[in-house]
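Hi C.,

You asked whether I'd gotten around to modeling the 345-residue construct. I have! Everything is below, sequence then structure, no commentary in between.
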Amino acid sequence: MKKYMVLGKEELHFDFSHKFQQMQQCDAQRSKEWFIIVAAFIFGLLFMTGVSYILEKKEFESPRDSSLANNIEDSKMFVVVVAGCSISTSVSHFTFKLLEQHGVRMTNTHWEVLHPKKNHWLNSTLFPQTNLDFAMRSMKKYYRDQGYSIRVKFEPKRMDTLQDLINEDYEDSVRLVLIVRSNVLDLLACQVRDCFTGGSKGYPVDVATGNRSDLCFNRRKYPNVTTKAYLKPDTLLQNLAHRVRGQRDLRAKIEGMLGPDVYITQVTSENLWGFEFGKDKQQSILEWSKLLIAWGIHPRKDVIAKVMKDYPMRRLSSHNDTIYNFHELMQKFGDNPIVQNYVRF
């Protein structure tokens, strides 16, 4: 009986140990299974994230025309040199679409980065630069390293900064085109309405009151307020000639910056946007093609025409719609060949 009890204890001990080992094995098995499940879940999550990233990146980076794709080595700063009131805001939107559709990997930076308040590379937490020239070089290098191209507007008063960028690597990553508004009467009226000229050429007038307007450039925010330009008759011809001369001088200055071996492509706002006013569409396609060639892009007429479809037709207004003292000027200069060359009735 005693032996049996001992044997019973031994059997009981053996049975307990066996059960314990089985429990450990089961726990280990369950842990292994859970480990496999969790690992598989994490792997699947990472895999799907990676696939999603690749697809998103591919979709983002894929050009509209793969035969025209550019890479990091082809990243450019596309420069438009333009004076105020040359319809440059519209050029900004159009060229962004145009370059994308031609396979250029673009990033939509602010068009007017030479204005300190519009340049996030100046005096910010991430980009604490205080020097505009250095900020522009940093911006160009950053987007170039990322494989992006950008387009930037330069105005005559900011040409020194452009000079620094061109001296670095014009042929390497900076491409330039000059846009002018060939109808200098349009140019003068717009500049006066926007208060770009001071008071010596004229001043803006609120048509509803007949008083001088202080909306200036912000007049675009008030479509229900009609602002016209009062142009001083005594200096009209002088002011028109000054703008013609200013455009010629601007081109000469750029030629001096780039050297005699570099051809400066000049296009006009009138030819670029003529398609909107029912003029020869092919002339506009040719003008946009000249711009693209200046930027080193092989133009495609079908792509340009496709982008044009997003822009509605507009009416080409008479100068009576923009010049407050239009009739006074026509009485004085109606027979003048210079004025006749620009005026629209």
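If it helps when you're writing up: The mean pLDDT is 81.

Thanks,
B.
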